Amino acid sequence: MSLRKITTTLVGAAAAVGIMAGAASAETTFKFAFQGTLKSLDPYSLNETFTLGTLGNVYEGLTRRGPDLQILPALAESWEVVEPTRWRFKLRQGVKFHNGNDFTADDVVFSAERVRSEGSDLKSRIQPDVVFEKVDDHTVDVILASPNPILHYEWDTWAIIDKEWAEANDSVRVTSASDEVATTISLEANGTGPFKITSHEGGVSTTFAANTDWWDHGNKKHNVDTVEFSTIASDATRVAALLSGEMDLVYPIPVQDIKRVNDNDATVAMTGPELRTIFLGMDQMRDELLYSNIKGKNPFKDVRVRQAFYHAIDIEAIKSKVMRDLSTPSAIMISPFMFDNADQFSRLEYNPDGAKALLAEAGYADGFEVGMDCPNDRYVNDEAICQAIVAMLARVGVTVNLNAQPKAQYFAKVLASGGFDTSFYLLGWTPGSFDSWNVLTNLHGCRDEKGEGGLFNLGGYCNEAVDKLSADVLVENDPAKRLQLITDAYKMTTEEVAHIPLHQQGLAWGVSSSIDLAQRADNQLMLYYVNKN
Amino acid sequence: MLAFTIRRLVQSIVVMLVVALIAFVMFRFVGDPVDQMVGLETTLEERAQLREQLGLNDPVPVQFVRFIGKAAQFNFGTSYQFKRPVAELIGDRLPATLELSFVAAAFALIVGIPMGVYTALRRDSWLSKFFLTVSLVGVSLPTFLIGIILIFIFAVNLQILPSFGRGAVVDLGWWSTGLLTASGLKALILPAVTLGLFQMTLIMRLVRSEMLEVLRTDFIKFARARGIKNRAVNFGHALKNTLVPVITITGLQLGSIIAFAIITETVFQWPGMGLLFLQAVQNVDIPIMAAYLLLIAFLFVAINLVVDILYVFVDPRIRIAGAAT
Whole-angstrom Cα distance, residue A55 to residue A67? Predict the structure, then answer.
């Protein structure tokens, strides 16, 4: 009995199965796998990229975003700012929900109330004091308390829900995490979008079918009839499912597997910059660090120490060794995609000798010890980045005690709910609104002990001039002036080394060569850009 | 006899309570569930409100008593991530895990016993040596590595078996089975082999050593001296006498197959309870974790209880000792 014979037979059988599968599929099915799960189908339950992105194929907002994230009209045909505090939205006519109901202004007003109601995780989409007024069936006025140029920036992920359907199916209330029974809207979907959900098993798989009654079906850019989504949590299995041809798209793929995916004839790795900025933060609020051998004072309150840390980091080494070139070093706390003046900023150079001199000047010639918190399953190679930083700081005499934990424990410790229990940490941030105001308030805003102010300003950096600028940014309607205000604020925060920005991590999707699609920098997969050859 | 059974039952309940308590204390250290339930931009007040609604602010003993009270009525609460009752979720996932476990156990028996017999009878043949070497791999390689190697060979290189999932399933009322479709059966092969390999090795080695022992005993020698055919001696007498410990071990191992399916389920993205539990750990979904741990504890306790009671029937000495105390 020869092993070769068995192998030949098996390969023959495999080829036969392949041919049969090819002949049987008259309609085009696109299969993709993601690391995480799609849980509730209620589009207001969880403010998280994958959930919102996937449901964005089924539900639509008044706006949508194109392949380069530009804002395009969707359910709203057009809009204008009638007066600084009154916006008028013209709604698209002839749009139908999947159940056949007409889309009207009532649905918009209803959705605006629902998204701000108890239990919604998307309350930040619309300020609480904004009023929605129905003018006629296809016109809605939005009345603001103060001017807000970025009112509609996040509305591509604010799904419009059918009022009639929600009321008939006990789904007016947002499915909250503490609910005892599931509402219809968390198990079924009824949007206006290009795809319908045909089956959904939470945490396992979801299938979609193309909506031939979609208002934009005439200009559709995709050619798929059905879509099958599966969760595959294990990195190795996800890559294997792509290489074996079972999947058309898997994401993310580990950076160390990019070469393997490219070496395979039938697959390619699509890489591109992501919006998320990875950075280091330092406790500048407490008078004595929680995790350090320096007692009675806080070395991070001295800007020279923060500069020294910055100078000690060899970002190019992190890029080439840890990130395998899949990162873009950053000098500011926001992706250049979302900030036009990014080129006016540059990183402090890598200079270990200069770092030592600065430390000596600040009175720490012999360095000091500090504890560092780091997640190990949240960002691309997060723990490896922290280990590299520990080694780099050791070169300038600072001993870092690394505490790398899974995200659940890490966030419980360092966020507001854990009392900001950290001295030195690594965090990533994507502004949900794609706008700098979000960064200036959340990461740079002065906060109190509880986090009121800058909820994610874990280190407690505070500069009232920055807060003042960020308040002005919020209400400035003129784009050029607004950009200048933002630039001024970033000038201050980078000069004072409020944080040490590291890089924007890269996206890595594994794609079958027969697939053509758009990879958006916000890591949302839009099925209406998918073409299968 | 009755007293013995009651005593064992009471002990079992105590074990379950202790498991529940340990699990509950552990949950203090797995992270903050609220951070996993909401997006980054949720304000502090909303987080605090959610925590209050979930009863996470109550003292631990209060939470524990509430949990036990509900669990006694088979109400394990609602999953934080899926917003569905935990009992329902586990009910959905249970068939996948049980099917995988039983097929893996059947594989271990059907392959393990003949291999054990063969290696005992033909101790010096090259095939026996090959089997023993392979079994060493089964014992020494970790499950996840075996799974990944199998995926690499059969899914990526040969492309004859799927690398993940359950294939198409058929719903039979509340039970969903993958045993009735071609893709379901194909999807079952790799995970079942991965999960059953260690048990197969164990059974093979057990059968082999028991067999060697029995073959050396006097009654086998007499049987041979009487001129009974080798076949009848080997299978009719020797094998029969080795099977008692094999059955006991298999029964006891079934519990661990189900419990350790976690790793296999993770590698193959098998939509069973183990995967559900692992996702729950990552997302600090306490209701699922608590229910799963209790279920597994119950499984072990139940199996041990049955085995203990069966022993009393089989072995009169235990009955006497039980009556004396």
Answer: 17
Cα B309 to Cα B304: distance, rounded to the nearest angstrom: 8
pLDDT in tens, B178-213: 888 999 999 999 999 999 999 899 999 999 998 898
Domain boundaries, chain A: 3-248+514-532, 273-506
Q: Which residue type is seen at B266?
A: T
Give kind and range of the element (H or E) at residue A370: strand A369-375
Of the candidate ranges A162-166, A380-384, A413-417, the one whose mean pLDDT is the lowest: A413-417
Q: For residue A15, name the pLDDT band (cuts at 50, 70, 90).
A: very low
Cα separation, A237 vs A34, whole angstroms: 11
As a whole number of Å, the end-to-end CA separation of chain B is 12
Chain A CB within 8 Å of residue B308 CB = no
CA distance B298 to B255: 10
Q: Residue B314 carries which DSSP code? A: H
Question: What pLDDT, on a 0 to 100 scale, did the predictor assign at position A65?
Answer: 92
List the single best residue of B81, B83, B275 to mutate versus A (max A Cβ within 10 A). Answer: B83
The pair of structure tokens assigned to A398 is 């600072």
Cis peptide before A352 (omega within 30 of 0): no
Report the amino acid identity of residue A509.
W
Q: State the DSSP H helix or E strand holding residue A93, giving kind and residue range, or none if neither.
A: none
Domain A3-248+514-532, what fold?
D-Maltodextrin-Binding Protein; domain 2 (3.40.190)
Model ipTM value: 0.80
Please, are residues A525 and A276 in contact by the beta-carbon 8 Å criterion? no
* Chain A residues touching B50 at Cβ < 8 A: 176-178
Q: Which two tokens stand for residue B292?
A: 């799963």
Q: Choose among A461, A459, A497, A494: nearest CA to A370.
A: A459
Instruction: List all residues of chain B from 126 to 185 with a beta carbon under 8 Å from chain A.
Output: 148, 151-152, 155-156, 158-160, 162-165
Q: CATH assignment of A273-506?
A: 3.10.105.10
Instruction: For each of the domains in chain B, give its residue range(s) and CATH number, in order of start.
Output: 94-270 (1.10.3720.10)
Distance of alpha carbon B47 from alpha carbon A123, whole angstroms: 13
Number of helices followed by number of strands (H, E) in chain B: 14, 2
pLDDT level of residue A434 (50, 70, 90 thresholds): confident
Q: At what angle do helices B86-121 and B286-314 cross, to 10 degrees?
A: 40
- Output DSSP code: residue B85: B
Residue-wise pLDDT for A206-233, tens only, equals 999 999 999 999 888 899 999 999 999 8
The residue with greater pLDDT, B311 or A444, is A444
Could you write out the three-class secondary structure of A229-277?
Answer: EEECCCHHHHHHHHHCCCCCEEECCCHHHHHHHHHCCCEEEEEEEEEEE
Tell me if residue B217 falls in helix, strand or coil.
coil
- The mean pLDDT value for B19-26 works out to 83
Tokens of A44: 């207001």
Distance CA A75, CA A95 (A): 8
Q: Output the 3-class SS for B180-215.
A: CCHHHHHHHHHHHHHHHHHHHHHHHHHHHHHHHHHH
pLDDT at A19 over 60: no
Contact A414, A313 (CB under 8 A): no
- Dist CA A425 CA A403 (whole Å): 9
Q: Across the interface, which of B35, B80, B164 has its CB nearest the CB of A232?
A: B164
CA distance A11 to chain B (A): 6
pTM: 0.82
* Phi/psi at A177 (5° precision): -65, -20
Contacts of B187 (CB under 8 A, 6+ apart): B161, B162, B165, B166, B167, B178
* Distance from C-alpha of B165 to C-alpha of B184, rounded to nearest angstrom: 9
For residue B215, give the nearest of B112, B114, B122 by alpha carbon: B122
Closest alpha carbon to B113 in B238, B9, B14: B238
Mean pLDDT of A468-492: 93
